[in-house]
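Subject: for your reference before the review

Hello V.,

The reviewers asked for a structural picture of the protein, and I figured it would be easier to keep everything in one thread rather than splitting it across files. Below is the amino acid sequence we used in the manuscript, unchanged from the supplementary table.
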Amino acid sequence: MMNPTTPEGAMHMKRYFILGGGIAALSAAKAIRETDKSGLIVMLSGESAFPYYRPALTKQLLGSVSAADIAIETAAWYDAPGRDIVTLNGRTVSAINVEKKTISLKDGNVFTYDKLVYALGARCFIPAFEGSDRPNVIAVREMTDAIRVRELAKSSRNAVVIGGGVLGLEAAWSLHQGGLTVSVVEFDARVMARQVDADTSEQIARAMKDHGVKLYTCASAVRLDDTGLHLKDGRSLPADLVIVSAGIRANAEIAAAAGIRVDRKIIVDEHMQTSAPDVYAAGDCAACGISYGLWPEAEAMGRVAGVNAAGGDAAYRAQTPPVHFAGFGLDINA
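And here is what came back from the structure prediction:
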């Protein structure tokens, strides 16, 4: 394996650094290697696991699935001859300097890049309500979050899911299958409002009711205490466990601090180029037209970023990927 900390080993090759461990980051790494057979590729990820199929987390929330079970590629894949992708997992990026072309890590290490792909993704948005910082409130974004849910579910009888989108409903279905009494709180007037029409939303609502899952629409949480989750309209729901699935916020702060143009997300052109030379961005942290925060988008953006970082020519075209939901006896494609 190539060593990113050995200057001699990378003296005559381009140094590609990829920040992130999701599908956009992995897709970028694959595209770089396809375009540049000899450059040094380093992936820096805050998670200890290798890139895995993140959508599976809510689909199998109470199962025994591990990150290795849903890994996109095996650990050995990265070291294979002709691929040689260096993976530094469990590392936190603290800053980048686009003038000096450096990446600073929380552990004190500093790396120098020739080309940088910023794919740090997003974090879950937690609506503001009293008690949102309690340990039984979890937003599922990483495998460690799913593991926490599994542990808490063992001693829980009643669960509330805040958010009636695809991921929220998948979580609700998983919790219901695990034997918990489940309620769903949705701010909008109907579930999956961004993905399906009103008739389909009503079909889902009926199926939830048939399975004993209560749905509260046009509702929002104001307080969580030992007696339950209290809604704005005065109703209270028993809640030993609260899962939040209320959207995401881009992890763009490091880019903004480096002077890269950011407007909630990192602004990129069709080549995934940011406002900084030799810096590309892809995935949930990047904005190129309308984005739905879906897996196929991040994968496509990562590939375009990787191709262009390695000197190729690729352009991203905004897409509307299909959405699939299976739960409550339904199988819906939208």
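For the response letter, the relevant points are probably these. The helical segments are 23-35, 56-59, 75-79, 143-153, 166-177, 198-210, 253-257, 295-309. The chain has eight helices and 23 strands.

Happy to draft the paragraph if you're swamped.

O.
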